[in-house]
Structures are given as structure tokens and as C-alpha cells.
Write a structure and sequence with these properties.
Elements lengths: L1 H7 L3 H21 L22 H12 L6 H17 L3 H12 L7 H6 L10 H7 L5
Helix pairs in contact: 1-2, 3-4, 4-5
Length: about 140
């Protein structure tokens, strides 16, 4: 949650540090008790780098597969949102828009208006499919 807040506020460096700390704690927790399912590796919130390739996207997809909306409506929807974030940050624009279409089709607190201002989707601004999905921006 803290990493997401830092990222939302434009501090990707701090977001990465917090995400790494959370990932480390989650790894220790799973090592102690293998029945614990961490629904989203904290590293998913980091801005994907070229060196990582699709790893952050695969991690987000795996998290969603472990806890889909059918199992937990709230967490599953959050995982869909996070997958879209990672896809957008990784430059997978078409995939991100498709994931956002899914997200907007289910009950969740994210709205088209929020998506227009969400810094996670800055790379999608100007994309015609994203614009159709989020509607016109306010003047």
C-alpha cells in the first residue's frame, strides 16, 4: 500500500524501496509458512525495467491467478487493477487497456475519471482505446 502511495505521488524511487522491503518481508513470511499466499509480490509495484523483461507482468498475472475475483471479489479486483498498472508501466498498452476494460466491468472503486488522472496510466494518455475507455476529460 505504501509503495502504491509513493508511486501515485510520483516518487518511483521511494516506491521501489518500499516495495523491495515489503517483498523481502513477504518472502520471509512464505518461507516460515508455505500455506501463506501473498496475493501480490511487492515487486509488482516497481516500474519494470528492460532488464526484467516481462517478469513483473508475469508476477502480477500469477498473483491474479492465485486469487481471482471469483475467490475474493475485493482482492481479486485489486489484483486486476495492479496487473493493469504493471502492464502500462511495462509498455504493454493494449494489454493494459484490455485489463482495464475487465476492471471497469466489475464493482470496484476505480472509475474512468480516476484512471484519467492515475499516474500509473500516464503512458496510455493519448491512446485512442484508453481515451474511449475513460471518456472525455474535464475542461
Amino acid at each position: 500500500m505504501q509503495a502504491g502511495t509513493h508511486l501515485f505521488n510520483g516518487d518511483s524511487s521511494r516506491a521501489s524501496k518500499v516495495a523491495e522491503q515489503a517483498r523481502h518481508r513477504a518472502t520471509l513470511l512464505v518461507a516460515r509458512d508455505s500455506t501463506v499466499l501473498t496475493p501480490l509480490p511487492a515487486s509488482d509495484w516497481r516500474t519494470p525495467t528492460l532488464a526484467e523483461g516481462r517478469k513483473p507482468v508475469r508476477l502480477a498475472q500469477t498473483s491474479l491467478a492465485h486469487l481471482p475475483v471469483a475467490k475474493d471479489a475485493m482482492v481479486g479486483a485489486l489484483l486486476i487493477y495492479r496487473l493493469a498498472c504493471v502492464q502500462a508501466l511495462a509498455g504493454e498498452k493494449q494489454a493494459a487497456v484490455g485489463t482495464l476494460e475487465t476492471l471497469l466491468s466489475i464493482p470496484f472503486y476505480v472509475s474512468p475519471a480516476r484512471l484519467r488522472i492515475d499516474p500509473n496510466f500516464a503512458s496510455l494518455r493519448g491512446d485512442s482505446a484508453f481515451s474511449r475507455l475513460t471518456g472525455p476529460s474535464a475542461p
